[in-house]
Amino acid sequence: MCGRYTITVTLEELMLRYDMYDTFMPRYSPKYNVAPGQQVMAIVHDGQRNKLGELRWGLIPEWAKDEKVGYQMLNARSETLADKPAFRKPFERKRCLIPADSFYDWKGSGKHKQPMRIMLRSKELFSMAGLYDTWTSPEGVRISTCTVITTESNEMMKDIHERMPVILPREKEAVWLDRSRKNVDELRPLLQPYPSELMMAYPVSSRVGNVRNDDEECIEPISLLL
Q1: Cβ 56 vs Cβ 32: under 8 Å
Q2: From 31, 50, 59, 205, which residue has the greatest number of CB atoms within 10 Å?
Q3: What distance in Å separates the CA atoms of residue 34 and residue 128, rounded to the nearest whole number?
Q4: What b/e string do you get for 102-116 counting C-beta neighbours within 10 Å, with b at 16 or more?
Q5: Which Enzyme Commission number(s) are on file for it (predicted)?
Q6: Residue 224: its pLDDT value, please?
Q7: Are 97 and 129 contacting, i.e. CB atoms less than 8 angstroms apart?
């Protein structure tokens, strides 16, 4: 699964990367330990241009009776998107990009798990494939939420975890965001493991296990304990 990630760039760098020039996000700041349930940066396409906004991490389907279901839908398996009621319609028409420059996962088992930071060798921003939906509470409060799509791990990631987030090739991002594309058979081939040779990983402090820790120490390399 994907349960923590980072986005440490400035807002200006983020806007430049995704061709957005008139976005104002007063609450934006670099994040070193993004966690489920938090507001996260996401990109959608409104039919004319990319738009940046905030979505709460943990998808709440529009038909859900209770918002607590969002904590069970942090990730969506790419293999079953078209089969699951919570993801079927978003897969067809509510797709988003979730920008990141790394994600965390834990290597090992039992009490001896080593947190690892995984990123592109180029250290550039990348786009995790996501879905979003908007839920309205009984009191009329609208909450927009998202989930990160996962796939089987590539060769590098298999040593850490059996699943990894879907990282879209840059040239395929516009295809994923294109709301006119509703044929899931055409979209499914995009949801592949990212090439191992373009990625790297290194061990980091167990501080990342605590959501209250959100600073540069989270991404500092340490000696591998395993």
Answers
A1: no
A2: 59
A3: 14
A4: bbbbbbeeeeeebbb
A5: 3.4.-.-
A6: 62
A7: yes
> Under 8 Å CB-to-CB from 199, ≥6 apart: which residues?
118, 119, 120, 121, 154, 156, 157
Residue that the structure tokens 């167990």 belong to: 206
Contact predicate 149/75, CB 8 Å: yes
Query: Is residue 226 scored above 60 in pLDDT?
Result: no
- Tokens 């909450």 sit on residue: 143
pLDDT, tens digit, for every residue of 7-26? 999 999 999 999 887 767 76
Of 122, 86, 135, 88, whose CA–CA distance to 199 is shortest? 122
Quick: pLDDT tens for 50-101. 999 999 999 999 999 988 899 899 999 999 999 999 999 999 999 999 999 9
Under a CB-based contact definition with an 8 Å cutoff, are residues 28 and 53 in contact? no
Are 63 and 72 in contact by the 8 Å Cβ rule? The answer is no
> 126-136 and 39-45: which strand pairing?
unpaired
Altogether, the residues listed in the chain come to a count of 226
Tell me the CA distances in angstroms from 19 to 16, 144, 178, one per residue in order.
5, 23, 15
Rounded Cα gap, residues 116 and 104, in angstroms: 6
What pLDDT shows up at residue 109? 77
Indicate the residue type of 178: D
Q: What is the DSSP letter of 111?
A: T
Contact 57, 100 (CB under 8 A): no
Place of tokens 């996000």: 25
Query: Which residue type occupies 169?
Result: P
